[in-house]
Write a sequence for this structure.
């Protein structure tokens, strides 16, 4: 007979032979009150990847398209745990540490109230002892790691990358009951997490993950695909946040541009998974017990199933960096070992109340991983760029680790006391004496929102009917589909966009003969690099377009790198120089007689004339372009600029 009370269900987690299980507290944005806790029991399958034969062909569990048939009973069907090494499936560099993909096939699904975990009599775990605890690297060593990256050409070229360090400890006599008690402590001491969770894999060599992650990744809900990019960290003082400091944090240009860069990276992913109608909301504040983060919500009509959406979404750029592929390479170079599940994804797939397929997932950060020997590891990191302070980034990693460890060592509340998420809001700002979300903070967030591209925040008009297709040249060099946001914008403002790979047979001739507009997209690399075969091919294509496209016909245009290639071919005195002052920055420029706040992403720029003045735009009848990225969320009138380039 199955247990009939919450206490009887929980008792199954304290036995001698506990089956694989997961505890999930998923705090839906805007949902009133504390979220319930979901308890999943099931069987765990292990494979090399999400699509591996070990998982696909498991005789007793069926396919990983595990949401069940349309109209199936609502509820979760599987919980997938994807390691960071999954990036290798997308051709991206990473240390292959052999960490497997694990999938919990859900056999039982129980929904428990949060206060079921506030009674210490249900614990049964005893006192928790952390032995041999500490970071595996000193602050000085981590600061040297950051300092070395800041001095690199990659950082000067605008690369932002999350570099990790590890905190380790031994937990003698660790068992599932201890994990449940740690989960109870997280519910008590931490608030604002996107997911608070325990996953226990069971078996002879079980692995247990306990965490409270602020970072949602990709989801499918109500027919829309949703992402939650998060970046920026405000460390709350023990006596409560200071309103002036919080407003200064929200006004900090570095913080706002880092979030926007993360949003750009996630937009590129989302647009590849969605149809027309992508929207950006925010930024918002995600308030946790010791930290505040800024994040946005991206959404668009879902164009793929849950499993395909999950597989194609890679991992959150927040835990990697931007540009994505370059950040993966930097992680591979600067981190000596594999990340295990850190930076990976926990994903829940099933059916919603209406019987539609549903996906919810969270990044595996702020998570302690404990193996069968009781060896625990907590990985934390800071996003490092060309303007980073080594001391500040080291302090951020200490704060993130302390946040998790403080929550895990907190005492459970007395019986009947509500968990932290249900208690009164955190202390008020010291400077204003009003709640954290006071008028000044709302105004600061509103200003951040107003500075974003209206194309993404307000939605685009329907594309022109019967317009000629735009051929978009893919300059290659990056296995991640970063052109999806540009293609989305081209389709919305001009008409259908058709991607042509630069090295496809007859690509240059196809572009020259096309009766409609041609757009050379941006990408990585220096356009005049004499040793790069790819750039040599791109320069030949750009020269053919400038030379052979008929005058007065549809324009050939370029953005970013594409603009630079056209400028070198069209302007006799054009030359390439390194961009000064860093990249990825928004600045005010005048384009076609109008002021535009524009996002400059490339590490190099085009200058011309004896005084070496920067060429921001070309507005000739046939050859046009802009040095910046119109599809960026930082470019205020990107759609209007693109319309003038292609029209």
């Amino acid at each position: 007979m199955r247990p009939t009370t919450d206490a009887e269900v929980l008792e199954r987690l304290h036995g001698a032979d506990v089956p694989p299980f997961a505890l999930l507290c998923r705090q839906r944005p805007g949902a009133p009150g504390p979220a319930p806790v979901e308890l999943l029991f099931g069987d765990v399958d292990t494979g090399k990847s999400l699509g591996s034969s070990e998982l696909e062909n498991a005789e007793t569990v069926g396919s990983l398209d595990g949401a069940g048939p349309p109209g199936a009973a609502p509820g979760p069907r599987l919980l997938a745990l994807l390691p960071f090494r999954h990036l290798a499936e997308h051709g991206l560099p990473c240390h292959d540490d052999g960490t497997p993909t694990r999938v919990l096939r859900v056999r039982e699904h129980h929904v428990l109230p949060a206060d079921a975990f506030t009674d210490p009599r249900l614990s049964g775990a005893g006192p928790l002892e952390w032995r041999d605890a500490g970071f595996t690297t000193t602050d000085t060593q981590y600061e040297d790691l950051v300092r070395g990256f800041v001095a690199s050409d990659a950082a000067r070229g605008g690369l932002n990358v999350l570099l990790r360090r590890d905190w380790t400890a031994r937990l003698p006599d660790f068992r599932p009951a201890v994990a449940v008690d740690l989960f109870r402590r997280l519910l008590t001491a931490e608030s604002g997490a996107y997911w608070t969770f325990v996953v226990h894999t069971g078996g002879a060599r079980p692995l247990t993950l306990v965490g409270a992650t602020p970072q949602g990744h990709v989801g499918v809900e109500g027919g829309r695909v949703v992402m939650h990019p998060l970046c920026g960290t405000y460390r709350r003082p023990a006596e409560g946040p200071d309103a002036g400091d919080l407003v200064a944090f929200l006004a900090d240009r570095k913080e706002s541009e880092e979030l926007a860069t993360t949003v750009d990276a996630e937009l590129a992913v989302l647009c590849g998974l969605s149809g027309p109608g992508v929207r950006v909301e925010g930024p918002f504040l995600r308030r946790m017990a010791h930290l505040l983060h800024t994040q946005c919500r991206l959404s668009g009509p879902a164009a793929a199933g849950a499993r395909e959406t999950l597989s194609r979404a890679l991992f959150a750029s927040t835990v990697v960096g931007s540009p994505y592929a370059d950040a993966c390479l930097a992680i591979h170079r600067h981190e000596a070992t594999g990340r295990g599940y850190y930076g990976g994804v926990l994903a829940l797939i099933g059916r919603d109340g209406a019987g539609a397929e549903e996906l919810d997932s969270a990044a595996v950060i702020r998570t302690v991983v404990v193996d069968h020997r009781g060896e625990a590891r907590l990985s934390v990191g800071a996003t490092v760029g060309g303007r980073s302070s080594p001391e500040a980034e080291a302090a951020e990693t200490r704060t993130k680790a302390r946040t998790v460890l403080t929550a895990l060592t907190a005492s459970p509340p007395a019986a009947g006391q509500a968990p932290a998420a249900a208690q009164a809001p955190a202390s008020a700002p010291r400077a204003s004496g009003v709640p954290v979300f006071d008028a000044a903070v709302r105004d600061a967030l509103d200003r951040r929102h107003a500075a974003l591209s209206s194309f993404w925040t307000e939605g685009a008009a329907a594309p022109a009917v019967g317009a000629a297709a735009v051929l978009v040249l893919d300059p290659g060099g990056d296995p991640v589909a970063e052109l999806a946001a540009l293609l989305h914008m081209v389709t919305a403002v001009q008409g259908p966009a058709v991607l042509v790979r630069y090295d496809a047979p007859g690509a240059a001739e196809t572009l020259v003969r096309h009766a409609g507009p041609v757009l050379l997209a941006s990408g990585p690399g220096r356009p005049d690099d004499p040793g790069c075969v790819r750039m040599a091919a791109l320069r030949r294509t750009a020269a053919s377009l400038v030379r052979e496209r008929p005058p007065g016909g549809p324009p050939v245009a370029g953005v970013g790198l594409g603009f630079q290639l056209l400028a070198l071919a069209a302007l006799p005195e054009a030359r390439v120089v390194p961009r000064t002052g860093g990249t990825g920055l928004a600045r005010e420029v005048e384009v076609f007689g109008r002021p535009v706040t524009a996002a400059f992403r490339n590490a190099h720029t085009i200058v011309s004339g004896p005084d070496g003045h920067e060429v921001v735009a070309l507005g000739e009848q046939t050859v046009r372009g802009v040095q910046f990225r119109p599809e960026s969320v930082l470019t205020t009138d990107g759609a209007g600029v693109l319309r003038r380039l292609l029209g």
Remarks:
- The CA atoms of residues 235 and 399 lie 8 Å apart.
- The chain has 17 helices and 29 strands.
